[in-house]
Structure formats: C-alpha cells, structure tokens
Amino acid sequence: MESFKNKVLLGDCRKVLKKLSDSTVSACITDPPYNYEFIGHKWDDSEIQRRKNRIKDSKTLVKNIPYGSGLAGGVRNERWYRRNRENILEYEDWCLEWATELFRICKPGASVLVFNSTRTIAHVQVALEKAGFYARDIVVYRRSSGIPKGINMEKNLEQKGYANPENWQGWHSCLRSEWEAICVVQKPLVNNYTQTLLEYGTGLFYAKHEDGGFQSNILENIKRDKTPDYNVHCTVKPLELMKKLVDIFVPRVEGTIVIDPFAGSGTTLVAAKQAGIDYIGIEVEPSYIDIIEKRLQSVSELQEMPLLFS
C-alpha cells in the first residue's frame, strides 16, 4: 500500500481498486459521474466536450453539464419510463461494482461520502448498502444559487397558442435545484465505537462547529473558487467544501489514508494534502491527471497541518 500513497493512479477505479490492500483506507470522499451522464457513454474529456458543445448556442441555461443521456426530453410514454428505469438499474449496478471493491479496502468504521444528484442519491445509497456499507446520513450541500431547468407551463402554452395561458402562471415542472446530496455510509464497526476507534482510528465524526455549536448536516455559505485556466474540468467542487468534509469525516491519526476513486480535478486530494493527510486518487481521464498534479504541487508545506494524534 505504501507504493500507492500520495499518488494519482490512472485507470477505471473498478480495476485499479483491486490493486489495493484490504482494510487500509480510513475514509473516502468522491464525486462520481451522475446518472444523467451515464447511459451508453464513456467519461473521457473528448466526450464531455462533445456533449457540452451541442448546447453551447442553445437556450439551455446551465451549459457546463455534459447533457446527452437521452433521458431528459421525449414523450413520456411507456417506453420512456421503461428506459428510464433500466438506466437507473444499470447505474446502480455500476455503482455496486466499484462500491464492492471500495468496501474491501476500507477499514472497519471508515466513512464513505458520495456526491450525487437529488434524483439518484437513493440509488447510490442502495448500491453502497448492497456492497456492505451501513447508511448513516445524507449531507446537504447548499449551493449559492440554483436555476430551474423544467417547463414554465404558462410560457409553453402561450408559445403553442393555447387560450388563457395566464391561468397557469407560476406552474412549472420542477423546483429550483439549489442543493446537492452527499450520501454518508460507513463500513460496519467492530462491536462499538470505542473498540473501532482504538483498533482502527475510525468511526467518529468531528462535530464541533466553528462557532462552538454542534455541526449540522447542512453545509452552506460555501464560497466558490476562482478556477485557474488550466483546470478545464466541468464540475469542480469548491475547495472550501472538500476541506470541510475532510475536517468532519477524516480521522487525524497516524496511518490515515483518504481515497477518491473519481478524482476529477483533484479537489479532495488537495484538501487532504493541506490537512497533512495521506491520500490516493484514481482518475480514468488522462488529461485530468495533469490538472491534479499541478494543483497538488501548488500546496506548499506551510499549508500542511500535522496530525492530531500519532
């Protein structure tokens, strides 16, 4: 395991995770592709750019998301709902594949945090539970803003020439999407929290808030980063957010390793390095490795913090 510490490994995490030893990882914080990115497509940068370019000059409000699953539009007939359900089950099976290997390498009591959309977080949790993890919580990351992406029925009826469209003023097909879900699961403890802590240094959350109160499972007022030009990843999470998750869920003890099997642009790894915690990243897209390495190199030794316990 020592040869993998503080490295970013290139490849499909379902294969790369098999190279790691049993019961060696203390925590996982990861942001896998969401379900709308899933159906029948690979997740390399060329595919992401192709799908973003399709909507560049369209009326779509959110242009940084690689749409193209084929599940957003269309006639809501029996075939559409069947295809939607098949896609969900396929996505759940895919999550189970990597979750099974992740379960094997986690220490007892290890916390695993997985980002996903509000629509599909339940399916991610089911897959993680099938792999053996125990559900603990859903943490809410409240973004600074959100845009409604559904149908404005008043305008829809007006454009199609229906009478009295104003009767449907204010009626839409969705609410404003303003938060992301973070599924929190845990590998089962060894008998209890005390024994697990003493044997593996895992199992607990740091629940003291900055103001002295008790930490909530709603994370808000997180500032967004100014992304450098070389970071072309389309869904970069704020560093402040990932640092907060590291502070709460990653134990500060000797031997701690945090893993991100979907490293993306490396924000989880940067947060871990700033906290003085060993990390392992896995990323399937080669061009993102360079982004991660540049970001990790920018973390100076002065930023790193010592472990609390050894």
UniProtKB/TrEMBL annotation:
Enzyme class, broadest EC rank: transferase
GO term, biological process aspect, one: methylation
Xref: PANTHER family: RNA METHYLASE-RELATED, TRNA (GUANINE(10)-N2)-METHYLTRANSFERASE HOMOLOG
Coiled-coil stretches noted in the UniProt entry, renumbered to this chain: none
Keyword annotations of the record: Methyltransferase, Transferase
MF annotations from Gene Ontology: DNA binding; N-methyltransferase activity; site-specific DNA-methyltransferase (adenine-specific) activity
Sequence similarity: Belongs to the N(4)/N(6)-methyltransferase family.
Keyword Cytoplasm assigned: no
EC number: 2.1.1.-
SUPFAM superfamilies to which the protein is assigned, alphabetical: S-adenosyl-L-methionine-dependent methyltransferases
Sequence ranges assigned to domain DNA methylase N-4/N-6 in this UniProt record: 25-294
Top-rank taxon, per record: Bacteria
Entry protein name: Methyltransferase
Gene Ontology cellular-component terms listed: cytoplasm
